[in-house]
Fold each of these.
Amino acid sequence: MADETAGEKASIVVFSGDMDKVMGAFIIANGAAAFDMDVTMFFSFWGLKAIQKGNFTGKSFFGRMLGLMNRGGAEHIGPSKFNFGGIGRWMFKTMMKKQNVIPLPDLIMKAQEQGVTFIACEMSMNVMEIGKEDLIDGVQIGGVGSYIAEASDSNFSLFI
Amino acid sequence: MADETAGEKASIVVFSGDMDKVMGAFIIANGAAAFDMDVTMFFSFWGLKAIQKGNFTGKSFFGRMLGLMNRGGAEHIGPSKFNFGGIGRWMFKTMMKKQNVIPLPDLIMKAQEQGVTFIACEMSMNVMEIGKEDLIDGVQIGGVGSYIAEASDSNFSLFI
Amino acid sequence: MADETAGEKASIVVFSGDMDKVMGAFIIANGAAAFDMDVTMFFSFWGLKAIQKGNFTGKSFFGRMLGLMNRGGAEHIGPSKFNFGGIGRWMFKTMMKKQNVIPLPDLIMKAQEQGVTFIACEMSMNVMEIGKEDLIDGVQIGGVGSYIAEASDSNFSLFI
């Protein structure tokens, strides 16, 4: 398969900040990269949480409140269902570990090692008061135009 | 870029009625239209809320109850997280305004001005008891077939 | 249209286990199959619920707890909004029935009759402790690679 897909493109908008969906996005991204596809991930809105370092963010009152309620970082984000204030995150992590599923921080690292391009949505960063210094290394900043350019040229493009 | 993408197609199913996701859909639609792409948006289920005028809808008991709990209209819909009975909507609107993000009603108008085609899913309208008179002007009514026809011919197609 | 799309491919990741989104996925899948497209659905994470038989699942303490809180089966899953412990499911079912919308179990059967391929994500099955015996008949088991192979070759690919 890798021969047939070499040089083909995939693009993924990571809009969700839920652990399960973000993991799904990275599993697909890593899978496509393993097929020698050229993969770009666009992190917008809640999806920025996946590529934050995990420090508290925000400058204005609303920005700080949002940073507090909605702390980013691959270690902190919870699943879309049954989180129950963090118990669900712990439960899923335990269940995944038992099955040797690669944890989210490692999936992110693996994607970077495989050359997946990470683009953070500038408008979302501004609205949510997340600065470049709040993001992990190796992330580019871009607008919707950079997504359209990739998506229109992709074999498949997903909104997650 | 606009030269390369001129005449290419994008299609978006707007299934979600959450303010943040609907805004994401319209930002992508407007971005693609700005690249001279031919863009079609299909509003189904909760996504119908985005193109409702905002009046209360429904005829049967369930229909009215749904119309009440789930009032449509670009001004009324709240974000997928942290809405807290409308506080979140107001907070995000304030944060977005501060960053000069185009508000949702203007994004919708801009999409129509740029020639984005709006199709409302007929089956969803029937189930949710939303009539053509409850929708903003310029919306076509269609079925799943009209989506498949566009999607199979699109450079990218998203489900939001 | 069916002539133009005959032999073309569509692929859908069903990640959500919410009744409304799962129905959306099957309506699109059936629509594409009716256009003679070659359709593959990948059921991962919560999406597995749609193709479970509906028995309680899980072996470990966490697995059983998850099976209890999150019972699968086309008859048991509720909508993404307004479920209220099952009332919403009943309300939507009633509203759909009134409009002669095909109920979910029949949509699933129709998809199988039209030759839609069902693939269950092996990693999700392991994590959630769902066995092959917990799934309806006619489902293949696969990994992310089988999705990438289909998606890279699809006219459209959706993440639902």
Amino acid sequence: MKPRQSFQPAWREDIPADGTYRSIFKYDPKKFSHPSAAWYEMFKKEFGMTDEDFKKRRPGGDERVVLQRKPGLSDSHINAFIGIVGKDNVATDDYSRVRYGHGKSLDEDLAMRNKATDRVPDLAIHPRNKEDVVKIVAYCNAQKIPIITYGAGSGVVLGIRSDQGGIALVMSTHMNKVISVNENNQTALVQPGLMGPDYEAALNRAPEIYGTTHRYTCGHFPQSFEIASVGGWILALGSGQASTYYGDAYDIVLSQEYVTPAGIIKTRDIPGTATGPKVNDIMKGSEGTYGILVEVTMKIFRYMPDNRRRFAFMFPTWEAAVNASREIVQGEFGLPAVLRISDPEETEIGLKLKGFNDGVLDKFLRLRGLKPMERCLCIGTAEGEKGSAKHVKKMASKIAHRFGAMSLTGYATKQWEHGRYSDVHMREDLLDYGIIIDTLETGVTWDNLHRLHQGVRSFVKSRPGTICTTHASHFYPQGTNLYFILMLKPKDGNEFFEFRKQIVDKIVEYGGSISHHHGIGRMFAPWMENYLGKEQIQVLRALKRHFDPNNIMNPGKTLGLDSKE
Amino acid sequence: MKPRQSFQPAWREDIPADGTYRSIFKYDPKKFSHPSAAWYEMFKKEFGMTDEDFKKRRPGGDERVVLQRKPGLSDSHINAFIGIVGKDNVATDDYSRVRYGHGKSLDEDLAMRNKATDRVPDLAIHPRNKEDVVKIVAYCNAQKIPIITYGAGSGVVLGIRSDQGGIALVMSTHMNKVISVNENNQTALVQPGLMGPDYEAALNRAPEIYGTTHRYTCGHFPQSFEIASVGGWILALGSGQASTYYGDAYDIVLSQEYVTPAGIIKTRDIPGTATGPKVNDIMKGSEGTYGILVEVTMKIFRYMPDNRRRFAFMFPTWEAAVNASREIVQGEFGLPAVLRISDPEETEIGLKLKGFNDGVLDKFLRLRGLKPMERCLCIGTAEGEKGSAKHVKKMASKIAHRFGAMSLTGYATKQWEHGRYSDVHMREDLLDYGIIIDTLETGVTWDNLHRLHQGVRSFVKSRPGTICTTHASHFYPQGTNLYFILMLKPKDGNEFFEFRKQIVDKIVEYGGSISHHHGIGRMFAPWMENYLGKEQIQVLRALKRHFDPNNIMNPGKTLGLDSKE
């Protein structure tokens, strides 16, 4: 039953004006996805708010971008860059500097709403090809000018903040093409600034475009799919929503070419080798600190959407959902593509927000012993060849039932698919009224999952008025991830940032990784040395010194590499 | 029809006497597998030999090991080592120095037959635990004493030759245990000197030993399985005969602990992370040059041998066998475990050696259009959960038939399984009469497979009296490997080594990797810089300088790391 809504907040529906901060920080300027009436009622209740609180939006973000800090680079430098890429591809205006100096973290969103945006590059450069990149790196290395590589700006870990000025190298303006598809090798040679949707569309239409026999898919669908670039997937070690089957970004790269101050690293297109430590893998996850990815050969997969099978279950407990998932991915019958289990709070909020929490479904679930704040939702898909997809679904269902689950048909999965890229658009609506949604995520082994989940959750919930939902959505035979979504109405940004810092401390204390697929950037850099251990961070720093002796590549603490030793 | 044998060479059946060279170089001192009559006839014919040539064995290998070079380490050093590991675990005798200073390459075999064994360590040390290793590394680093880590000595690339003396650290004497099995995480914590058969037996019996619910398998079965250690699999980037399903050694490692001169690297047991370049992966394939593996958490797999399905096909051509294999591993229906296709020469020799080349089977094959020196054998297995294994076999068969193959039932696969670890024992029999069997192997993409195969093969066959059989046996959606087996009777070892060098040149010229799964060692080190490119070898050297500033870890050109820059 949908709650009746007495008052409807005036969620913004206007496309932000050109040149404004909001046109930068809004996730996708042209897309909107507002909180439903149910969401709205929940926020009022959880945060002790009233309709009154939603009658006036907080100001911020609609001003035109104006920087206090002028570009620190001399005209001779600027002319040198113009000499390389042409006048049209060098931008010194304030808007470009802010736009290409910010990602999509909550921190950057709040900063832009407050016009606190002085840690930006001196100028933005749009290289046309790898030859441009080679010349730019050589020049910057000789002149000791910092280079921050901007893929498409979807990062959420402060990975492209220019603490020391320099240039933002924008890869998605020109270097955004599929160069070729090799059907024999089942690979695509692409440029790093290629956007997910363009890539996927080209692969889906490979017979028409490249004359292939089969259609293909990239297999990588992070929530940021619509606004992220292939280079970002690899450099920040992303993980797509179907990673359980297709692998993480790390796994779907065959070979790469990087321009570094120490020369060009071009690895070979050979799928299996025993020729020493794999430089191809060393470069992945380097977040712009070692060099600039200029070309990459990606593994691709046959695209057979008609074979997709959806499934959804309600488990009696979180423990049952975890145990069944583990059994599914350890069972050696093939892996589901999407697999996602929600903890009791996430399950309950999900039901509530779909209006299912006091209707027929809820009664039915209760009758079946699936009780509120115990039951857990699981959704998934099986892909690939028809018989195999069918078998994986059959086996997953068999296991789910063995662990007491009730089948929900694939409807819940379709619902999730519908919002998979768009739920995130709500963030702006909520921030307009001082409500924060932010996420933290971690990798974990099976035997540490409950301890980590409970430890972090109980800390988060110790703050009154904090919604904390958790799911696991990337599975491996050895473990999974935990993705925490936090919703709260803090006094101010600083209260939240301090709270978030304490949560990360808890994640590390309970043995999780600092990140499963968001990356490190500057946000999590302070934890790196302690997390990896001194011996391991020194390995990464030794590589940094080798590739980038002048420390021009994404300098300023990213990955914790140029912290003092 | 089996050939009648007029004369039976007196293949040796005696277990080599203790203390002799032969007791070291013989693949497994207690196992024998002699050439059949058919093999014997083939060698006579191909190499222009007569029974007369097999009446007298060449001498060599039966002498007791005596070194000309005395240990170069002072008594004070030796006493220091005794102080660390105890007197029983330090060996300075000639036999230990030769035994723990040699692997199983043809080169080392011939050298030992000729008593040319002076490039050996000064002494062998058998550490009892990782604390011993820490102390030994600290001492050697302070005193600049080379350390060569000896796993079990199965390597074939001169990876443990002591060009500069120093110590051999023998991991398989004491550090050879399964420490624990974690069923929840589906991992085993093991020591690096653990031998394959001991590991597999422990996992198969996990319910009895560790109280697990399921039985497990390690998933890694190289031809050297019976004589190799887990540490060697990882450090030399091995690949097992079922790698198409289970992955290469690189893939089945969750975390590791290394002792290096720069400190202890202990990576975390987390299956997915986005915390920068993965130090866990950087260490793999380092062949003893960065540090000493002292503990490793391996991924393990459910052991369900009853579900195994075998299949075998005869394809009309090599091209058909390649195309079908590609379709099988790109088809998204799950992967076979073993998959192996033999080129026409390997197929023909295989049939001949089994006596099938002029019998009913051969007639039947010819009638079906499967002609000698065109037809190609394929064998394989499907493993895992029952329904999945059945489905993989069904799909593989369907594809094979589409490419014109005839099914041979699983008999051929069983035959292959029978000899999978033992065919290699023939090497000594043949060397006793001056016949060489050696192998070279390379990784390749699908689109370069035929060019590489034909290019290398035509060069090899340009030498009269050279048998060259080739198979592909490790498959990826992006490509496979090519494994060349060479049989010839050269004038002497040097003629062969020069020939082999030229073949490697051809492999590189035609775009293959220097190695797919044997590793680099000192044998292929001279090709490394050209193969990887200067920029990449410099990355590996930068890591070398970081981990091992005094160049004590497996020094002397291994991996091409301490060649002059």
